[in-house]
Amino acid sequence: MFQTIVLGFILLTTLYILKHLRDPKLNMPPLVRYKIPIIGHTFRYTFNCEKFLGQCRKEYGEMFSLYIWGRTITFVGKEYTHEVLSRSDVFDFGVLFRKMIPGDVMYTSIDNFGDLRSYGKMIRGSSISNKLNLYTERIQKSLYLATQKHIGDCNDQKVIYNIYSAITKIISASIANVFIGEEESEYDDVISTFAEFTKDIAVFFLIPPIFDLIFPGLQDFVKRIPIRLGLYNPVTRHVNTLIKHVKHQVDKRLREKQKYGDSWKRPTDLLQDFMEQKSFDPNNINYTALASNLSIFIFASIHSTSRACANVVVDLASRPEYMQELYEEQLEIHKKTDENGILPFESLKEMKNLDSFIRESLRFTGDVAALPHWVLKDHTFSNGLQVPKGHVVDIYSYDTYHDESLQGPNPTSFEPHRHNVPASKVGRNFLTFGGGKHMCPGRFLAINEIKFFMHNAILNYNIRTESGKIEDKFRLGPVALPSNNGIIFEKRAK
């Protein structure tokens, strides 16, 4: 037994040393000092990320490397963030996404899982990107009905303790309408799939990659085992739900199109966009592939939009001094509603104060580092430092969001009037939607959803924190989530 332990220790130490041999031919970014072998910087990064990365930046400069969960990762500051985001031929987010989420074994009917180029092309060629005005009435109606269901009139004040959960259900109702159509989005099982899918997949993000401490990539192998053995697959239930509703809708549309010919009224939603792609064969329909692709779009849209919207609610509840001016703006805009209470699409551009508040809330999302990229080939940065193929480069987003030259005076304070550009606009000083060729193509839909929801919420409720204080984010490593503390909704006196 003793000999086995000694041999195991020698093996681990050997692997550890081999993993940390630096290529003498490369001028790599400095590796931050650490005291605990094998563990490296893992604990400090996981439990005190904001302060730790700030110290590293101060001591090592705009580019440094950490040893986290068995892998050396290079973090780039504001000076080189754009270089990473703009060089899609060198830095690829999709590769790491596929490593974190074992889609190759979860999905057996599609082979483009995690291909951001493919999904971006599908969105940019869809009505979601090019004809958002067609969804204006449907989005508003579904948001209003879902808000009534999950928040209510609040004649007596109502305290919601997990605002993210409530917002997720509300956003899910609206995006389901846009993705799968008005008819199918009325079903509770569809809404449940939209609301719960990301949570079920997130297990792969939440499980610490402890096996990577032994050898990089071992975690990827281990987490695929229960799926390959048929013991657990988080997508199965949701894809089966989508298959049922997709099949009903596709078959119905094909029958009606054949029956009515030129007089057939084309449905407007993402499913119909899928049906009009060249790869769609009406004589050999792969319903599982359709449902699987829909589920990936659900994963990409629901959590990010819901988290952003929940943060806007909490940020406004934490700062009631901005409520009146936002109320007056929305009240004036509301005068333009039609007889059904629907705002015209053009009114979104008139929500200047709300738009600026949303952008500031997005800036304050709280993620310390985001958008890790896989290095596709050896690369030399403009400062002469180099990273090899197979390396990981992460964006130190805090460095951008707390820089006075990029954000203006007092960058660490929440000031919703600092912005004079739309919340959806991507720039060197705003990383929420990525950058370069692969910036988020769904950002316009996300911002529209948030604006329409907040328009209704501001007009109908007084919103404040139960604590009466500014609520801090809940942090897990570099990621921040909306506070679970109570948010009070109270019907606004007319």
Report how far apart the termini are: 78 Å
CATH overall fold name: Cytochrome p450
Q: Treating each run of at least 4 consecutive H or I residues as one helix, how many helices?
A: 21
Could you tell me the strand content as a percent range? 5-15%
Helix content: 40-55%
Q: Could you report the average pLDDT, rounded to the nearest whole number?
A: 90
At the fourth CATH level, what is the homologous superfamily? Cytochrome P450
Main sheet overview? 5 strands, mixed
- Strand order within the widest beta sheet: 1-2-8-5-3
- How many distinct beta strands? 12
- Per CATH, the architecture is Orthogonal Bundle
Family: Belongs to the cytochrome P450 family.
Pfam families: p450
Cofactor: heme
Keywords: Heme, Iron, Metal-binding, Monooxygenase, Oxidoreductase, Signal
Task: Summarize the structure in words.
- By secondary structure, the chain is α+β, with helices and mostly antiparallel strands.
- It has a single domain, classed as Cytochrome P450 (Cytochrome p450, Orthogonal Bundle).
- Helices cover 50% and strands 10% of the residues.
- It has 21 helices and 12 strands.
- The strands form 4 sheets. Strands 1-2-8-5-3 form a 5-stranded mixed beta sheet. The protein has a 3-stranded antiparallel beta sheet with strand order 4-12-9.
- It is globular.
- It comes from Rhizophagus irregularis.
- This is Cytochrome P450.
- Keywords: Heme, Iron, Metal-binding, Monooxygenase, Oxidoreductase, Signal.
- GO terms for molecular function: heme binding; iron ion binding; monooxygenase activity; oxidoreductase activity, acting on paired donors, with incorporation or reduction of molecular oxygen.
